[in-house]
């Protein structure tokens, strides 16, 4: 009797708790979302769905681990869960690439129990794919595709079991139809071996005469018809999305007369969201269609965060897609997909280095060919290497965090004992070898300097002899960086005043990659047996995240 009563009480209370929690959820789930869905360095997004889970991958260029993979349940809240290439020995070629070479636009797909990520390593082996049963990994070794040196490969599984590889390029160069033309072609692929089978078929050179740089293809079969979606115009202000369809996978593909179906190319330089293009489509479990694509944001004329990932709705009218009807623009605030609101718990801002592995957020500049860092006793121990951030094709001692906000605070506690004049450790704001800021303990002083278009400028240098320091960088809305340092967090003094932050912007450092902030140690071209110890690193974004 008692037991029965208890059970009843339990079940009614549980039911009311469930009711309360659904209503809390309903109350707190916003109606809108905020673009970008992944801010900062997140170009060339590609998306796939398994059950009610969504996965998105980005290109990553010379940074490592390569091809970040994010997970979401509502297309709006995304969590970094892995990288498709995180084992350095799987892609040793990435140790030597130039800035903005390396990993270009990927395609992420799921078929028959396996995830596939296919991409190009530019100037480091060309096209390859990796597979995984679990998107968190482990991912396989690369399987190299034989016979294509073009970029932006796509994989498409047809209903008859055949798999098609789409590549970018003009098969017969003598037939290049106009200046700056590029094209898309298709060929069957054997996914066991990576061999392309049969003949290559050219599908298009672009939606119309004069279409430039047709690339980034994805093929889908929707209601019995084959759709080809491409990026056009180059990944700058003329970027666009165009669509084609065909009754046969190998064409002929008819360009939609309303192409390009999405572009901000005619909005002029003042557009806040610009460079929209390079789309991939997904249908939700509730029947809606959405597209991810890349775009950039214009902060008072400066593109500080490079190419980011955006989301927009797609509807079908007369058998063709309409992007974000009726405005046909990517909006910063837009109506949310009809999916259960599923935010992830906020991550702590401070990384204490207590685990035995670096947090997924951290990246290296190129593939580390040797183990120059270690996590031990709650510290990140970083060996000084002669390589600096101003050298090309090297892997300096840098541990970097994507800059995901226009406004942020980054800080660290670093110690480097008995420093010689060539030995330095501290913070960097980094884009490429010619455009970056360094704020370091060096020899007997603190030094703040930056490279802008390859020219080194020293902002400030102040005597400092203690073994360790807290270093702090504040990036502000007015495109300035403010630096401070001291022996403890409550005793910081500023140095250098307001420093123009635009060296890492697209305006100055234009490239495919994006900005980072992080930790750095170097012995400036000379051998050293020193190790710098980072007690913690903090990255705190100050941009408002989700829509109200
Ligand atoms: C990407 C290609 C592109 O692979 O930029 O300009 C490349 N075009 O689509 C790098 O994101």
UniProtKB/TrEMBL annotation:
<dbReference type="InterPro" id="IPR051795">
    <property type="entry name" value="Glycosyl_Hydrlase_43"/>
</dbReference>
<keyword id="KW-0326">Glycosidase</keyword>
<keyword id="KW-0732">Signal</keyword>
<feature type="domain" description="Beta-xylosidase C-terminal Concanavalin A-like">
    <location>
        <begin position="350"/>
        <end position="540"/>
    </location>
</feature>
<dbReference type="InterPro" id="IPR013320">
    <property type="entry name" value="ConA-like_dom_sf"/>
</dbReference>
<dbReference type="InterPro" id="IPR006710">
    <property type="entry name" value="Glyco_hydro_43"/>
</dbReference>
<keyword id="KW-0378">Hydrolase</keyword>
<feature type="signal peptide">
    <location>
        <begin position="1"/>
        <end position="26"/>
    </location>
</feature>
<dbReference type="InterPro" id="IPR041542">
    <property type="entry name" value="GH43_C2"/>
</dbReference>
<dbReference type="GO" id="GO:0016787">
    <property type="term" value="F:hydrolase activity"/>
</dbReference>
<dbReference type="Pfam" id="PF04616">
    <property type="entry name" value="Glyco_hydro_43"/>
</dbReference>
<keyword id="KW-0614">Plasmid</keyword>
<comment type="similarity">
    <text>Belongs to the glycosyl hydrolase 43 family.</text>
</comment>
<dbReference type="InterPro" id="IPR023296">
    <property type="entry name" value="Glyco_hydro_beta-prop_sf"/>
</dbReference>
<dbReference type="Pfam" id="PF17851">
    <property type="entry name" value="GH43_C2"/>
</dbReference>
<protein>
    <submittedName>
        <fullName>Glycoside hydrolase family 43 protein</fullName>
    </submittedName>
</protein>
């Amino acid at each position: 009797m008692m037991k029965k009563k208890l059970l009843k009480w339990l079940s009614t209370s549980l039911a009311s708790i469930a009711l309360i929690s659904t209503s809390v959820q309903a109350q707190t789930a916003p109606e809108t979302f905020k673009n970008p869905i992944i801010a900062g360095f997140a170009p060339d997004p590609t998306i796939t769905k398994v059950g009610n889970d969504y996965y998105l991958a980005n290109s990553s260029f010379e940074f490592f681990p390569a091809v970040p993979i994010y997970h979401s349940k509502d297309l709006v809240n995304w969590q970094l869960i892995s990288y498709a290439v995180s084992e350095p020995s799987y892609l040793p070629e990435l140790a030597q690439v130039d800035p903005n070479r390396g990993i270009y636009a990927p395609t992420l797909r799921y078929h028959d129990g396996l995830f596939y990520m296919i991409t190009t390593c530019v100037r480091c082996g060309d096209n390859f794919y990796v597979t995984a049963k679990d998107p968190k990994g482990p991912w396989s070794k690369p399987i190299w595709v034989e016979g294509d040196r073009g970029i932006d490969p796509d994989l498409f599984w047809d209903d008859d079991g055949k798999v098609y590889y789409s590549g970018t390029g003009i098969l017969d160069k003598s037939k290049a139809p106009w200046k700056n033309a590029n094209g898309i072609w298709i060929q069957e692929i054997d996914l066991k071996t990576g061999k392309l089978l049969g003949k290559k078929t050219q599908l298009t050179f672009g939606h119309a005469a004069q279409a430039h740089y047709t690339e980034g293809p994805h093929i889908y079969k929707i209601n019995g018809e084959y759709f080809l979606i491409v990026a056009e115009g180059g990944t700058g202000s003329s970027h666009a999305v165009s669509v084609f369809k065909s009754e046969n996978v190998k064409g002929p593909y008819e360009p939609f007369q309303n192409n390009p179906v999405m572009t901000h190319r005619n909005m002029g330089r003042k557009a806040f969201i610009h460079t929209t293009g390079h789309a991939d489509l997904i249908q939700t479990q509730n029947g809606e269609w959405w597209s991810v694509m890349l775009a950039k944001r214009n902060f008072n004329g400066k593109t500080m965060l490079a190419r980011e990932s955006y989301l927009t709705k797609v509807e079908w009218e007369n058998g063709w897609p309409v992007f974000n009807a009726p405005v046909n623009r990517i909006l910063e605030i837009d109506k949310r997909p009809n999916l259960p609101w599923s935010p992830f718990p906020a991550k702590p801002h401070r990384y204490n280095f207590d685990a035995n592995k670096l947090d997924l957020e951290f990246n290296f500049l190129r593939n580390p060919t040797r183990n120059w860092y270690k996590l031990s006793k709650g510290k990140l121990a970083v060996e000084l290497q002669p390589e600096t951030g101003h050298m090309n094709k090297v892997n300096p001692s840098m541990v970097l965090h994507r800059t995901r906000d226009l406004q942020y605070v980054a800080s660290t506690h670093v110690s480097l004992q008995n420093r010689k004049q060539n030995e330095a450790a501290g913070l960097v704001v980094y884009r490429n070898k010619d455009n970056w800021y360094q704020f370091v303990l060096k020899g007997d002083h603190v030094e703040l300097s930056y490279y802008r278009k390859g020219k080194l400028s020293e902002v400030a240098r102040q005597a400092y002899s203690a073994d360790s320091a807290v270093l702090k960088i504040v990036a502000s809305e007015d495109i300035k960086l403010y630096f401070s340092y001291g022996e403890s967090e409550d005793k910081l003094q500023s140095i250098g005043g307001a420093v123009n932050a635009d060296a890492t912007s697209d305006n100055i450092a234009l490239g495919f990659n994006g900005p980072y902030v992080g930790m750095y140690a170097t012995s400036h071209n000379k051998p050293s047996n020193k190790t710098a110890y980072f007690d913690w690193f903090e990255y705190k974004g100050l941009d408002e995240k989700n829509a109200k």
